[in-house]
Here is the input.
Amino acid sequence: MAEPGPGPAPGVVYLVGAGPGDPGLMTRRALDLIAAADAILYDRLIPAGALAGARDDADLIYAGKAPGAVALEQGEIEARLIEIAHSGRSVVRLKGGDPFLFGRGGEEAEALRDAGVPFEVVPGVTAGIAAPAYAGIPVTHRDDASAVAFVTGHEDPGKDESALDWQALAAFPGTLVLYMGVRNLPLIAERLIAAGRDPDEPAAAIERGTRPSQRTVVATTAALPGAVAAAGLGAPAILLFGPVARRRERIGWLERRPLHGRKVVVTRARAQASELATRLRDLGADVVELPAIRIAPRIDSPAVATMVADLHTYALVCLTSPNGAELLLDAMEARGLDARALANATIAAIGPGTARALRDRGLIADIVPPRSIAESLAESLREVEVEGRPVLIARAAEARDLLPEALAGRGALVDVVPLYETVREPATDESIAAIADADYVTFTSSSTVRNFTESVAAAFPAGARIVSIGPVTSAAARELGLEVAVEAERHDPEGLVAALLADATP
Here is the structure.
């Protein structure tokens, strides 16, 4: 068997557990292997975005199974793994949860061994522990249960009779956790009670455990089937029987997060969206990232080359976005310059986000206006002497001309140099379907408004409340006939989150 190493080796199959659904529960080893694999065979219930780090040239093969819809039979999966490995490529077999806990990983490992294919097993967090934990139910507790049993609620339909010993399960002195049993819940509860399990014992069903859409029902063992049916819970779900279920009332935490149950669309460019999306997820939101724009750098243009060569001549340098700040410094580094090239200039950043982007690269802005709009920046520069002096405004190609016009009106010798342009990012059918029931759509610039509206067209989520980062973005939305429900007082991502949170939790 292959020795564990830093990355995939040719011809090796990695049986990798992707965890129960929350992308944050994926292991570092899993992410490293996904990023380096030649091919990935993945299941239906892997976390959202689990494949985002895969190589562009990786062969992604869907091998999911759903009731009535099987992409690849088990034998076909094993044959594909062997075939790819024998071709000298590294393969990640990506499974929801843990590959060796009701994941058929053991069967696949045996098939690989029989075929002479080296393999490695990478365990994952299993839903039987994680889903109850996210619901506030410890599967063991000093006062309630010193043992836990993991049981399948969906046995091989080809079996003549159940392999489960219901008498033993009913008498088990601890917590019973059943996987894949929600469809058979009435029969499971009936058999446990008939075998002697207390019908009044606390029980729970947890749908889509660890995901933002997680839902939990707690009832007695006898009442659980009816409660689950009334709530409309379905697969995937974990069933739990035992006194620990009553602990949820005190220590349940996931559903108490302020944005739990709210679906929020983030339209920011992919490179900048992660921070905003992470903050919203931390507050409990179900985040759909549908970037409306893509940042296309122009730092190789002749205009930028001239600008970088002349940096030492500018008395004032204005940066109107985090993208502009980062690309200016990238352009400088590409030509062998560092912060010393800006020693003669006053540096102005349009807001705290832009100032933070500069600070992260070792520069502290001299001027940061109270509001992240061009009008506020122009006002903050009133005390800076610019008449007859060279001024640089490094920005997006399609930005407003308010700032350069204001400075030119005061006699400044203004150079406007585009460092990037925003390009519309087309929406996929899958992403459009995902936003249909969104509660909020967030916009962080006028370009995200225009491009998102064009991308989704008539599929714009009708019931969603629009959250704008500031007045310029709000104006762009209203020009397109959209009603802005919430506008951030502080015109940066943190201000947008605060405004959305205040609207969702009045």
The radius of gyration is 28 Å. The domain at 263-292+425-504 is CATH 3.40.50.10090 (Rossmann fold). The first helix runs from residue 28 to 36.
